[in-house]
Structures are given as structure tokens and as C-alpha cells.
Amino acid sequence: MGQLWFDCRLQYPSGFHLNAAFEAGNGITALFGPSGSGKSTIFGLIAGIQRPDSGSIRLRDRVLVDTQAHLFLLPEQRRVGVVFQDHLLFPHLTVEENLRFGLGRGSAQSIDFDRVMHILEIGDLLKRSPRTLSGGQQQRVALGRALLRGPEMLLMDEPLTGLDESLKERILSYLERAVAEWRIPTLLVSHDQADVRRLADQVVVLEAGKVIDSGPTGPTLDGAVLTRLSYRPGPVNLLRVSDLQRIEDHWEGTIGEQRLHLPAAAGAKMGSSIHVQFLPRDVALGVDSVSGISVRNRLQGRVRELVTLPDRTFVAIDVGQFLWAEVTPEAVRELDLHPGRPVICLIKTSAIQLLE
Question: N or C: which end of the chain has fewer CB within 10 A?
């Protein structure tokens, strides 16, 4: 079901021209694309801090912008919660005063203050100054302030940029909990594939001010990074590993009915789940049983798709979840890779990044 309809054009003096139209539904929609593709411009147009040359923006049953009707709602009239990349907390106010700023103004729903404190774990910060907070704490306070407005939609501009991996994962976890708790449609601006794959239900892919594709996150993002974007970055593998177990001196988890050896998992809990990330070039393929090598991870799967580029081929493999391997054209011929072909995926434990 559609929640946001966007169709706008904007010409900058620099020569950049935005001409984009898309629809965002429930859940999380990501705006994905390289720097300069138009993501932040769209964010500003929806938030009301920029005006389009022409076009319209509708949120649910309300028109926010209609240039033909000379209609332009001010930011405070739009019922959107905004989280900027640099947080923009008021330095002269306490954390609690920041959180309560604008509380209830034009709210679309009532959000309980204490529940926000609990979900985001910021109740012990209320009397502090924003200047004394870490980057992750500031991000959680900014998210809490946006939620407490009771918005019809949440807008987040590169909310994880500049955070180290452990802190990024904590913020991702808080964001997932908040969106699930209040079911607020969310528009997320990001250039990070792993963040988009983990969080977003759908993605709008942008390049040079235009929408080049939109749809469900997995297939849409794969198609864009393999064949649609001009710079072709290739996909990133993001898998969900469950039932973590400590086995002697290492950790293991399961993907379907197969075990995956993992690097040291600081803070991991027995029986819990985790996301792991690795690159297609870190996956070697075999078609026969392999022995006498140090690689611990040997996932059995079947080829589902091949995407051939001039100098390399990406192979999609079903191992219970989908992963991509990057191989040479020679390897495709020598291994006779084709859809349906059984293969063994060899993945070095050291190539796996844990996203806790």
C-alpha cells in the first residue's frame, strides 16, 4: 500500500538536474545511489527544506507540495520526523528538553515518552547536555526526538555514516526495534549496500538525478549494482546466521542445515542470531569434494543465475539463502557453471565480517 508519492523536478545552478518519481510503501524504503545521485535532494524536498521547480509530493491522503496549485506546506506542517546525518541537537538544551521539543505538535499518533526511552535506552541521559554525548548517543536522541513527534513518516539521512561497525550495529538494532514498535513508514538515505539489504523492504535506486529502478530490496539492488548503475560496484553478501554455538576455540552458526565457521564473536550469545557480510570475490567455487585445504567453510548449493560482465562473472548460488560469487570467464567454462549446477562455496573465515 502506498504511503508516499513523489514526482519532482529541480535544476541547480551547478547543472545538476533532479527528475525523479517513485512511490514508497509501508516499512522501510531506502534511497540508494552514489554520491551526487540526488538522494539528499529528495530528502530535503520531502522534509520541506527545499522547494522543487515543479511537481508534487503526497503523504497518505495529504498533499505536501503541488506546484501547479501553488501549495507548499512548511516543514512543521508535514507530520514527518527527520533525523539528519549530523543530528542537529540543540546544544543549549538538555537531552530531555531536546526530546520534548515539538512534542505533540501536529502529531499523527501518540507516542509514549517512557516507551521511547526504554526502546532506545536513553533514559539515563535525560539531564545531560548534548555536548557530553558520544556520536551513538546523539544519534539515539535524535531518533527519539523524531519519534516523539508522532510522525506519519520518518526520514533518515545517512544515519550510520561515521560510526564504527560495533556502534553502527547497535544503532541499526535500535532503529529496527523502533520501526517495528510503532510501524512508522520510513525513508532511509544510504549509499551502503549492507545497511540497505539489512534494513529496507524496498529500494529506490538513483543515479544522476533519475530513478533507474525501484522494487523489493534484494533483486532490485542486485540488478542495479550488477547491470544498471554505470559504475557497477557489484553486490555485497549479507546472510543471516542462526543458532550461534561456541565449539572449542571458535564460533559456528547455521544457514539452513549447514554450519558456518565464524571469526571471534565478541559478546555473542549461545543460540542467538547474527548477520554476516563478505564480498563475492571472497567466495571460491568447486564442483567436486575438496580436501586437504585450510578453508573451513564449504557450503553446498546450486547455481541460480549468472551475470556476465566483460572481465568477470557473478554467480548467484542458493545455499539456503542466496549469495554471490565472483569468478573469471575461464572458471565459468572450466567448471561448466550454469543454472541448476551443484557447487561448493569455499569461504575463508577471515573474510567474514560479523554484524552483531
Answer: N
323: domain CATH number? 2.40.50.100
3-state secondary structure of 209: coil
| Residues 176 and 244 placed together within one structural domain of the fold | no
CB neighbours (10 Å) of residue 87? 19
What is the SS3 string spanning 277-311?
A: EECHHHEEEECCCCCCCCCCEEEEEEEEEEEECCC
Residue numbers of the domain that contains 257? 237-355
CATH number at 106 reads: 3.40.50.300
Nearest to 27 by CA among 184, 240, 194: 184
pTM, entire model: 0.86
Burial (CB count within 10 angstroms: exposed 0-12, middle 13-18, buried 19+), residue 181:
middle
Number of domains in the chain: 2
Residue-wise pLDDT tens digits, 203-237: 999 999 999 999 999 999 999 999 999 887 889 99
Phi, psi of 203 (to 5 degrees): -135, 145
Question: Could you give the count of Cα atoms lying within 13 Å of 210 in the half-sphere of its Cβ?
Answer: 5
